Structures are given as C-alpha cells and as structure tokens.
Amino acid sequence: MQKKRTSKAILLLIAAVIFSMYQTTPAQKKRPKQPVPAAEAKPTVPEIAYKVSMSQPSTHYLEVEMSVKWQQMPEMLELKMPVWTPGSYLVREYARHVQDFESMNAVGALGWKKINKNTWQVETKGSKEVIAKYRVYANELTVRTNELNDEHAFWNNSALLFFIKDQLKAPSTVTVVPHADWKVATGLPRVAGRDNTFRAENFDILYDSPFEVSNFKEISFTVQGKPHRYVVTGEGNYDLKKMAADTAKIVEETYKIFGELPYDDYTFILNLRGGGGLEHLNSTALQFNRFGFKPKARYDGFLGLVAHEYFHAFNVKRIRPDALGPFDYENENYTKLLWVAEGGTEYYSNLLLRRAGLITENDFLGGRSSGIQQLQERPGRFEQSLEDSSFDAWIKYYRPDENAINNQISYYDKGEIVNMMLDIAIRSSSAGAKSLDDVMRHLYVEFYKKGRNYTPADLQKTAEMMAGKSLEDFFAKYVRGTEEIDYDSIVNGIGLKMTVRQNNTGRAYIGADMAEEAGRLTIRSVPAGTPAFEQGLNTGDQLVAVDGYRVSQNFMQSYIGDKKPGDTVKLTLFRFDRLRDINFTLGGNPRREYSFDPVAEPTELNRKLYRDYLNADLK
Ligand SMILES: [Zn+2]
What we know:
Layout: H1 2-24, H2 26-30, H3 37-41, E1 47-53, E2 61-69, E3 76-80, E4 98-104, E5 112-116, E6 119-123, E7 129-137, E8 147-148, E9 152-155, E10 163-164, E11 172-177, E12 183-186, E13 197-200, H4 203-206, E14 211-214, E15 217-223, E16 226-233, H5 240-258, E17 266-271, E18 276-279, E19 283-287, H6 296-311, H7 338-355, H8 361-376, H9 386-391, H10 404-407, H11 413-429, H12 436-448, H13 456-467, H14 472-479, H15 487-491, E20 496-501, E21 508-509, E22 513-517, E23 520-525, H16 531-534, E24 542-546, E25 549-550, H17 553-561, E26 568-575, E27 578-585, E28 587-588, E29 593-598, H18 604-614
Helix pairs in contact: 5-6, 6-7, 7-11, 8-11, 11-13, 12-13
Bound molecules: zinc ion.
C-alpha cells in the first residue's frame, strides 16, 4: 500500500512538470487542447474498514463503524445503503433501519445530511480519514434481511454496510466483534493474523457474503479436494452427518456437469427458523423448519432447497444473465432471463436429486406433473409470458395480490416446466447426443469463463446449437409467448405421454378460493372463467350462509359436493359492511389431474433417451 502511493506521487509530480513545459511552448498553444492523462489516470482507491459489533443482542441493534482512508477524499463524501440485495428482486429500502448516524475525523465531529432516501453526505473538511458510525435495527429473519437476538446474529452486508458513491470496485475488510463466545461464519476469506477479520475484493463480493454469528454446530466435508461446511444454528430433528453426506452427492453431481468447482471453499449457513434460501458465490443462506427433516418426503424438500441454492453458484452467480452483475444497488436491475436463472435452477435441483439417487424417477416425474397441473389451473398463463414474468419480477412476482392468479405466472414454476421441455426437446432432436447440460456448460465456458454475461438471444442460439435445429417456434410460443404448451409432442421423444384425467366430472363448484380464519370464511381470490368470476363474487367477501345454513369450509365442501352443476343456491355474504343474498348457479368443476405415463409402443431410441434422462428403465 505504502509503496503504491509513493510511486503515484512521483508520477503526479512528473506529470505536473511535463504539463507545465507544454503550457509554455508556443507551438502547443495552437493545437486543440489535449486531455492531461497522468493526473487522473490512476485515482487512488479508498481504504475501507468496517467493524460490526453487537454489545446488546436483545435490543436487536447491530453497531457499525466504517472507516474510510482516502488520499482523494472528496469535499462531500456520499455514503449509500443498497436498496435491494441480488437474488431477491424487490426494492426493500434497507436504509429505513439505519439510525444514530454520526460522522467524524481525528479532530472531532463532521457535519452531514441526508440527500436522498439512502444517501448520507458527509462534509469532510479536507480530512483524509473519515469515520461513520451508525446502528441498524435487525429483527427480521429472512435470507435477505438481518436478525440479532440473544440466540444469534445473521446479516446480509447489503442490508448493513454503506458503500461509497462510485467506489464499488474498492476492496474492504470487515471485523466482527461477536457477543460472548459466539463464533463467526462467512464465505469471505479471513485476514491472516487478525481476529474475526475478513476481506472482500470488491462490493459485489462483500454484498454477496452473509454472516452467521452464534454457537453454531459445524460439519465439514470435501468434494473434489475442495472444503465444504455446514454451519447450523438451532436445535431440530436433523442428522448432521447424513445432511453432509447427501449434500456431498449433490455437489458431486453438479461437478459432473461443469467439470470444476469454481471456488476455494463453500459454506452452507442454515438457520432452523423461517424458510427459503439465498444464493451466493461461495456460500448460501438457508432457512428451514427445525422439525422438518422427517419423514423422508419433507427431508427431500430440504435437499431440494440445498440443491437449488447450490446450483445457483453456477447458474446466476457465474452464468450471469445480461443485467445481473456487476450490480446497480440503488435501482431495479431488469432481465428477461429469470426463467432460466430461477426456473432452470429449480429444474436442476430436482434433476440433481434424481441423479444422486436421493429421489426415485417416479418422485421426479410426479413432482413435475403436479407443477404442470398448477400451471394449467392458472388463467394468468394466457396473460404473461416467461420473459415478461422475469422482467416484471420487481413489481409483480414479489408483490402478488388477489388477481395474480389471473394475470401472472411464476418464472419459477413455469420456468421449471419449460426448462424440462427444452431439455427433452434437445435430447430428442440430437438423438441423445446433447442435453440442457451442454447448454449450461457452454454458457459457463463461453460466457462466465470469458467474463461475459449472456442475453436471451445467446441462450436461444446455444440451445439451437445443441438441438441441431431451430427452436424459434419453441421460444416464440413458450418463452416469449403465452401459448398452451403441447407437452405430449415433446415428451413423446423420451417415450412418455401426458395423461390428463378429469376426475371431478359431474361435481358442482363455486370456483372461488376461500380461507377460513377464526370461524370466518372469506374469499381470497376469484380465478377468471369460474362461476364465481362470472357471477360477481369478490375477493374479501365474507360468506355467512348457504341456503340459510351457517357456513364453514367443511360444510361447504359436503353441501356443495352433494349438488349438481346447474343447481342454484342462495349465498349470504358480507361485502364490506353490508349483508347480501346472491342467487348463485353452480358450475361443473373442470379440475384435471396430470401424469406422465409410458407411450404404448416405445422405440429403442425412446428407451435409450429415457434411461439417459432418468437413470431408470421405461416401464
Ligand atoms: Zn433461486
């Protein structure tokens, strides 16, 4: 550090001398003005060090001290809090939890003011070193927020640590002062010789590295020579050794796709409250129900979460869609590719479990067909394409309302299905020579390895290269468009057909989604095309009676179940504050069940492709 600064000062001096020589040469004056490169060619980088303390965990305040040493300290230093965190596409306004801000230099306090919702502007008065102190209220345990209490601290740096305007490439260190004898875990590398101090090369890495500080349990395992570990906070019915062994299999299967593990080490941070996961470059934050590790079906759900977040270390953290990195932490980052980043990852999470032998091929196919059933029940599938759903995640997916079922699809759910269909289409048209694995590997090698992000056009081109033919029709209909997916014509290639059973023929229904709470039965959403939609039932209507009988969820099921489509009932309900009677004509329930079944006479190629795909014989 010291050496660098000395040489820079000399360079500046030489530049100044040369500049003044040119200034005095008359011939130079006639030339158009040239920029003076040396003076601004090598701006100094700020030295940033954070200290995070937790002196009173029960108050939920994380205490932050940020020190900035900078030869080019501006007159006004702008400190900014991100408004969102990568992987969770919603503006969350982390600045709202900041309080007790103070700024100072070696001599005393420095003046400051807020200039917008997430920017604190400090008047530096010529100081080369500025310290900012503030506290952040941390009492919300999700994978994208912060929590501190007497059991642990978990935080995302993007929701805790300021960055300096235009200095996202600057390195920094984070020193943690843990409560009592708590241990510190993060994916960031340690600074040798310093207690609980970690280093980040830039802010995309800093903001990508959550911390867990507690008396966590820990188990380590090695895959392909690389250390992996679980860090678990909380008691529950989990088996740490089995968890590590099964996770190692998932990592191994992922390695087989890409041929390398692109990190020095990997940390699974697991909290046994809340739910969900968030992906990072060499770690993930997971939350799961503490007693959700038994029976096997629920444990499979946990492994699915692990596989999803782990696969993201490749798909989205390294194979990056156009707008996803380097990140703009103050605005929405728009991409049409979340259906690959999320839907593709969800597809692979189940595929990895199957390849690792952790679930059966019937588990795999059953799970996917129930996903198809859910998609086919959403009127929104005709309103929103996968690309539009990805693009509008910021205003729609993360903010679903009662009409979401009618005007949205999920880029996770439909994305998973379309990735599956794309995989099968590639396998079929290449006669088993290629698959979606080859698409992923190509994106990894040609984009990640070459420091590029990929676009929707790059993806389609890669898929077509693997399929050996144009997939324009597929992408136009199912990715950019809203056409009904022709499952049969696709899965026939691997010897399967889609069976659709209409089990409820002749059963009457109202068609609104209802919820019962504290004895009140209320309409939660009204899917388009149902009798409820056509006859004017509203979200929020509170059902009181049917044909004069007091209603409950149970009562409705048996009472309406006894009726025939076309029968009329009298619904008594509160809409807002007023009681109403509605004569309501019941419809016929169109609910269908979907399953994958073998075709009648599979060819040898069908059998081979099925075996390649699911590592099992077509029965
Ligand atoms: Zn995900």
